């Protein structure tokens, strides 16, 4: 379970970025920000070099459902109903400087850091080399796409792209309707999906529509539909994509493989950039959060204290709760010391 997302006052009095953000990714990331949420526009953030201050005024503390780095972005999902999804995008701006922008779906449609988008090339990728498995018969030529091909044995799939070290970044398994049904009924498809699932990105591309696939002469429709459903549920990371014909299947695969190359470059950049955001000083743990009013009332009733069902929590109830938890903490520490 990730730690809480915390917004505090920036302890630097002269800073133009008055807030301090504590992001629970890895060992923790600290950023200075101008706003407490990107409500109307993207919020510029800057790295906070010092560790978490010992004395800091906390503005807001929210539980986190998910905090994951994807490429050059950190996706943050908070445990609340509104203003819960946001993203920190790490990019390079004019002059080669690294910058971080905090955004939501309302403030930006989509971010593609460090990517030059082109309508001619897939995602602007130049000199895309697609490796065709040496066992592939009647291979796609990608003659209408801006890509070159070479033959080589692939560990999985029929078409793939490699990184500079020769590792497969992504692969596509090409299927005709007859081949897909045959491999599914024989059990071969599950082994192929297992191999594809071991790759960073993979897909099965069918040179037919879903409706055309179900019109098989010898295999019942229910058997095909159920088999495909079972395979997709068992291997959710390997989508089975239905393209109407060979031409569209080739085009989809070209775009997919180019997208994987872009994603790999963004992931390398993001890993380095996020590592640079980690504070030089170690992050001190956050204190135990204060209980809500409902939690305090429930605790007080369980302990036999008299408390009204509404209104403010009396100071003596808060003091009793604090004293009880402090005693429990000292007891746990004493037991840990004696056992060691």
Automatic annotation (TrEMBL):
Protein name: ERCC4 domain-containing protein
Superkingdom field: Bacteria
SMART domains per record: ERCC4
MF term (GO), any: nuclease activity
Domain ERCC4: start-end pairs: 129-210
Record keywords, A-Z: DNA-binding
Any one Gene Ontology BP term: DNA metabolic process
Phylogenetic lineage: Bacteria, Bacillati, Actinomycetota, Actinomycetes, Propionibacteriales
